[in-house]
């Protein structure tokens, strides 16, 4: 398969996309459930964003400590082990009796959700060079669709059976997908060139050596901070008057972003054609523009829906393009490249989540919109400067 054979079948590519979507969804289920968690476990509105932030911290640690192992050990076993441990973490969250246990479980959920990045890098290795952008685009579409559908699924399941059931259902689904992946993923011949400490140090070395990694990592930090600036406090806005929406209704807004994510899945094909830089510029402009309709969310749900579609289209295009460009840099270091890139993604996501709930409690939705637009503008300015 790929550099090891004849490429990836569409069925296996689809399974990889499903696995990635399910794994990353575990990180984002909490966003439309924050008010329910806060009410049951006694968290204040201004600090409830800590649930998302702790999950992102766990995710960041996983990126640093676990994802690089994809360049050192047999990835089929690594994927199976990570997903099995995810099942345990999800069960802990579903049964958490206190805030401390909840936060510990959420950190573990984030830690093992980085199986997503191992799978994306694995798919890039298994694909042929001619199809790599398409395969990465498809698998990464699963990631973004998982992020978006997580809110919808969490809303419906929570309204039907409570927020704890969301994590119980996900534990069962994760176990089923882990078994399927173990059956279909190929074994690898692993050549151990580095020890584990050397492997971790080499992630930092790659930042020194590869300018593309530095640029794409900063863009990931800024743009994913913008993404979580929208989604983390959104339930606090929509769940209160004048909208007073249920968890299911709030979750439906995740479906609005699916249209944008699906449209942006072609970004990988554009990268295959050498149009990665132009796609990045267009996506960053679109991201900034998306905050105009989002700013009207307090008075218009239609404007919010339009803004979500535009924002998720931009984020997906940036993410797919960024990864496609990175995988072409150092084929032997793909897991470490994506680990470095995604550490900045995680830092941005966590910072955006925590800051946006504080901003919302003090300055309302307009303050959140200003924060998101400012992050997008800085990202666009940084990209323009990096091209000089």
TrEMBL record:
SUPFAM superfamilies the UniProt entry points to: MFS general substrate transporter
Membrane-spanning segments: 12-31, 46-66, 78-96, 102-123, 135-153, 165-185, 217-238, 250-268, 275-294, 300-318, 338-359, 365-385
Keyword Transmembrane helix: yes
UniProtKB keywords: Membrane, Transmembrane, Transmembrane helix
Domain of life: Bacteria
Pfam families: MFS_1
Domain Major facilitator superfamily (MFS) profile: 12-388
UniProt name for this protein: MFS transporter
Originating species: Myxococcus landrumensis
């Amino acid at each position: 398969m790929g550099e090891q054979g004849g490429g990836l079948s569409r069925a296996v590519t689809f399974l990889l996309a499903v696995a990635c979507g399910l794994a990353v969804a575990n990180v984002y289920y909490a966003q439309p459930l924050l008010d329910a968690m806060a009410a049951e476990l006694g968290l204040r509105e201004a600090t409830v964003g800590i649930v998302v932030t702790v999950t992102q911290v766990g995710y960041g640690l996983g990126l640093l400590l676990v994802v690089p192992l994809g360049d050192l050990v047999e990835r089929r076993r690594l994927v199976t082990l990570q997903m099995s441990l995810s099942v345990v973490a999800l069960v802990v969250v579903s049964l958490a009796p206190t805030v401390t246990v909840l936060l510990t479980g959420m950190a573990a959920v984030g830690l093992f959700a980085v199986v997503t990045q191992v799978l994306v890098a694995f798919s890039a290795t298994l694909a042929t060079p001619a199809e790599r952008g398409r395969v990465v685009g498809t698998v990464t579409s699963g990631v973004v669709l998982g992020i978006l559908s997580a809110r919808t699924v969490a809303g419906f399941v929570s309204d039907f059976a409570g927020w704890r059931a969301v994590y119980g259902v996900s534990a069962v689904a994760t176990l089923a997908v882990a078994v399927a992946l173990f059956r279909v993923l190929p074994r690898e011949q692993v050549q151990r060139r580095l020890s584990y400490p050397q492997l971790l140090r080499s992630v930092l070395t790659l930042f020194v050596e590869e300018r593309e990694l530095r640029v794409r990592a900063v863009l990931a930090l800024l743009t994913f901070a913008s993404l979580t600036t929208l989604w983390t406090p959104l339930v606090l806005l929509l769940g209160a008057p004048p909208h007073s929406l249920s968890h299911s209704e709030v979750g439906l807004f995740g479906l609005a972003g699916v249209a944008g994510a699906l449209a942006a899945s072609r970004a990988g094909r554009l990268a295959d054609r050498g149009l990665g830089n132009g796609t990045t510029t267009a996506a960053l402009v679109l991201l900034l523009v998306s905050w105009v309709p989002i700013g009207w969310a307090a008075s218009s749900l239609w404007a919010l829906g339009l803004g979500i579609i535009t924002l998720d289209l931009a984020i997906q295009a940036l993410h797919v393009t960024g990864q496609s460009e990175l995988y072409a840099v150092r084929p032997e270091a793909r897991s470490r490249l994506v680990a470095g890139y995604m550490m900045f993604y995680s830092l941005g996501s966590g910072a955006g989540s925590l800051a946006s709930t504080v901003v919302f409690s003090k300055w309302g939705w307009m303050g959140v919109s200003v924060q998101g637009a400012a992050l997008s503008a800085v990202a666009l300015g940084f990209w323009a400067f990096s091209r000089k």
